[in-house]
Amino acid sequence: MSRRQQARVAVIGTGSWGTTFGKILADGGASVTMWARREEVAREISRSHRNSDYLPGVTLPQNLSATSDLRAALAGASQVFVAVPSQTLRENLLAIRPLLGADAIVVSLMKGVEKGTGLRMSEVIVESLEIDPGRVAVASGPNLALEIAREQPTAAVVSSSRLETAQAVAMLARNSYFRTFVNTDVIGTEFGGVLKNLIAVAIGIVDGVGYGENTKASIITRGLVEMTDFAVARGAKAETLSGLAGLGDLIATCQSPLSRNNTAGRLLGQGYSFGAVVKQMQQTAEGLASVAPVLELAREIGVEMPIVQQVKQVLDGTLDPKDIAPHLTTDSDEPQGERTSDDSETTSGGPLRRTFKRAFDQLRNGRGSAVGDRP
C-alpha cells in the first residue's frame, strides 16, 4: 500500500466544503471518517454515500464514512481536517482536544477571523489545542465545493510554518482532479482566503444592484490591492496574494453564483436587510462575519480598506447599495496614482501582469511537482 492508501484521516464538519474535502481525500486513497453533528447526516453519508443537503447529486466514495461520535471519528487519525463555521471553531476544539492523537496534524479548511480576538483560524487552533504551530496547516484556493465534488479540475495550496507538515497534507489532498501546492506563508494564505470573501460580498452587492462588468472589474482589481496591503502589513508575503490563495480564490469567489459570499452580497444589493440575508442563507457566508474584525485589525495597523468599509456600511444599513462605489478610493478630486502593489515593488514587468501570469502558470502546469513547489 502507498502512504495515502494507509492513511487514516478525520474530517470535522459535514457541510459542503467539509464533505467535498472528505471526498478529495478519499479519492486520493485515504480512509476517511467524517464527524457530523446530526446523526441523520452521518447515516446518509455512511449508508447511501450521499449528502443531499449540501452536495445534491454527488456520490461519495466507499472509503468515506461518517459518524456523530466524535471519539470514533478521531480514533487513529493521523491528520484532522476541520471545516466548521469560523465563529464556532473554539467550542468545537474544546471537544476535540482530549481526543486528538499526540502527533496528529490539524488542518484548517476555514476562511474567517474570530470575532473579539481577531485571530486567524490557525491561531485559534494553536491556542485552543495548545499544540506546536508546526503541527497545524491551512488549505486555501479557488475551491467552490460543488464544482470540485463534481470532479472539475482545480488547484489549491496547503500552508504550514513547517514545510514538512504542508507536504504531508498535500500528499493526501491530491488526486486526478485536485492539484495541491505548498508554501510556508500561513499568514498570507489565511488572509487571502478571508479577505477575498469580503471583496466577493462587494461584487455581489453591485451585481444585485444591476451594475455591469466595468464596475465589478474595478472592484476586483482594487480589491486585490486592499487584500495585499492588509496581508503584507500583517506579515504576509505579497507574492502569496498573487497566487492561488489570493488572486485565484478572488476570481472564483467573485464570479460564481455558487459562492455563498457572492450570493449574500447579491441579496443585499437587491434590498434585503442583513438579518433577512442571514435568514435566507442555508449555509454560512464567512465574509459577513469577518467584515467587522478585519476592519478593526486594519485600523490597528493603519491600512485603509475603502471597499470593505463600504460593505460594512451596507451591512449596517447606513449606505444604500446603489450608492456603493468602492473602486473610487479617495475623497480628493485630485488625480491619484494607481498603485497596484506595495511601494517597495522593484521587480520588472508590472505587478498586475506578474500576478495574472503567476496564477495562470500555477493553474496551467504548476511549474513542476505540485507537492514540492512553493507558490
CATH T-level topology of the largest domain = Rossmann fold
Model regions low in confidence, pLDDT < 50 over at least 5 residues: 342-351, 365-375
User: Tell me, what's the shape?
Assistant: globular
Strand order of the largest sheet: 3-2-1-4-5-6-7-8
At the fourth CATH level, what is the homologous superfamily of the largest domain? NAD(P)-binding Rossmann-like Domain
Mean of all residue-level pLDDT scores? 87
- The CATH C-level name of the largest domain is Alpha Beta
Profile the largest sheet.
Answer: 8 strands, mixed
State the helix count.
17
Would you count the extended β strands for me?
Answer: 8
Helix content: 40-55%
* Structural class assignment: alpha/beta
The amount of beta strand, in percent, is 5-15%
Q: SSE order in H/E notation?
A: HEHEHEHEHEHEHEHEHHHHHHHHH
Pathway: Membrane lipid metabolism; glycerophospholipid metabolism
Subcellular location: Cytoplasm
Family: Belongs to the NAD-dependent glycerol-3-phosphate dehydrogenase family.
Keywords: Cytoplasm, Lipid biosynthesis, Lipid metabolism, NAD, NADP, Nucleotide-binding, Oxidoreductase, Phospholipid biosynthesis, Phospholipid metabolism
